[in-house]
UniProtKB/TrEMBL annotation:
SMART domains (UniProt xref): AAA
Domain ABC transporter: 1-239
Record-linked CDD domains: ABC_Carb_Monos_I (cd03216)
The UniProt record lists the keyword Nucleotide-binding: yes
PROSITE patterns per record: ABC_TRANSPORTER_1, ABC_TRANSPORTER_2
Entry protein name: ATP-binding cassette domain-containing protein
Molecular function GO labels: ATP binding
Keyword ATP-binding: yes
UniProtKB keywords: ATP-binding, Nucleotide-binding
InterPro entries in the cross-refs: AAA+_ATPase, ABC_carbohydrate_import_ATPase, ABC_transporter-like_ATP-bd, ABC_transporter-like_CS, P-loop_NTPase
Amino acid sequence: MQAVDKHFGNVVALSNISLKVYAGEVMCLLGDNGAGKSTLIKTLSGVHAPTHGELLLEGNPANFTSPGQALDAGIATVFQDLAMIPLMSITRNFFMGREPTKGFGPFKYVDWEFADRVAREEMAKIGIDVRDPSQPVGTLSGGERQCVAIARAVYFGAKVLILDEPTSALGVKQASKVLRYIAQARNRGLGVIFITHNVHHAYPIGDAFTLLKRGTSLGSWRKEDITREEVLNMMAGGEEMASLDAELAEFQRTDSASVA
Ligand SMILES: Nc1ncnc2c1ncn2[C@@H]1O[C@H](COP(=O)(O)OP(=O)(O)O)[C@@H](O)[C@H]1O
Ligand SMILES: [Mg+2]
């Protein structure tokens, strides 16, 4: 992404953003609510056209006018408002828009037997045992649903996987499961953009970090050049968190005093 701006009328949602994502690496995109993270990935994935600037994929200009085009080029995005239909089966969600067909012409039909088998196998590869892939996706946990979305991207040969806050609504155990699958996708050679506002989710898995604040980039760092504490402090609220810690410690002292 080179010198990208995105305006919505008078609102400047992104200003002069440049960043790079490499194959086989996780790039964490960090920033507070409203920083422009979702707008940035929507610009990368063909939902919004940039107002200025350009996108390059493997060195070639990539001007997508729809998410379908970005997907065809190998950029798979799991949006924050997870695009899945809860009452539809796991298989249907897995193959949505890419249903495998058999036969041709007027005799073409969707090969659900094949689809069910692939969905079951691909989920098994990432450690989720789906006994019945025709069960509604709504019966899966939030973490498992994120994993269906990741498995789908890997299966359809994505080069770049973009995940918008995949762990933010999850408990510790489920979040660690999703983080493990992100690592697997990276190990299979995908370039991953992992969006979060949780440094503790980002730091262990990130190879590089880009920090957004009010639509501008505060910079990008390789992991070896920045510590977890430095990332924490740079994120909006770093100082506030320190003073909150101090306040909480004070409360604790007065509480235990009143108990005694
Ligand atoms: N479609 C839109 N129209 C107008 N303003 C928008 C639109 N989408 C996002 N914005 C604005 O862009 C800014 C960044 O939002 P967003 O990208 O959702 O932030 P984040 O994902 O980091 O929380 C916000 O001020 C938001 O109101
Ligand atoms: Mg967002």
